[in-house]
Amino acid sequence: MTRPASDHALCALKSAFRSALRLAGGGDAFSRSTRVSAAQLSRYGSPDHDWHAPIDVVLDLELDLGQPVVTAALAAAQGYRLVREGEAPAVSSAAGAAAALVGGSAEAFSAVHSALADGRISPRERADIAARMDLLRAQLRALDDALGADMASDDPEGDAE
């Protein structure tokens, strides 16, 4: 069966789930707030398993965190960016986009560094790195868009280049 979701996008979702789980205090802590065990939560984030977190578990996790970490990755995989309902885009959107790019770059560097620790990059590590690079490209586009929007808003004549 051919799936519409690429391996890179699926790895990015697993990476986002792992990040969110870390922010929630880890699988043991979060398992008390949802319907699955810490071991199952670990499998959902593991590149060594094909299982992904059910949407209700993702919702529990994101409500616990107060931020849509996995949902943002889902949106990014489809070329979208989330904005909180009723909230205008931040005035310093370029700064936020730059911060996201820096954070994403650090995560990508960490993944490459970890993958090279044993002297070889496995297929799963390669897929994880490729997913992180896809996310970096999306973050770079977001920064470019934000800089363009900032430039346009600073140009009352509409002459921004």
List keywords for this structure.
2 domains, 161 residues, 434 Repressor (Amino-terminal Domain), single chain, mainly alpha, globular
Can you offer a commentary on this structure?
The structure is a single chain. This protein has helices at residues 7-23, 27-31, 38-45, 55-65, 69-77, 93-116, 123-154. It has two domains: 7-77, 434 Repressor (Amino-terminal Domain); 93-153. By secondary structure, the protein is mostly helical. The chain is built from seven helices and no strands. It is globular, with a radius of gyration of 18 Å.
List the helices and strands and how they pair.
Elements: H1 7-23, H2 27-31, H3 38-45, H4 55-65, H5 69-77, H6 93-116, H7 123-154
CATH topology category name of the largest domain: 434 Repressor (Amino-terminal Domain)
Helix/sheet category: mainly alpha
- First-to-last CA distance: 46 Å
Mean pLDDT: 83
> How many DSSP H or I helices?
7
Q: Which architecture of the largest domain would the CATH scheme give at its second level?
A: Orthogonal Bundle
Query: What's the story with the biggest beta sheet?
Result: none
Broad shape: globular
CATH class annotation of the largest domain: Mainly Alpha
Can you summarize this structure?
This protein is mainly alpha-helical and 161 residues long. It is 66% helix and 0% strand.
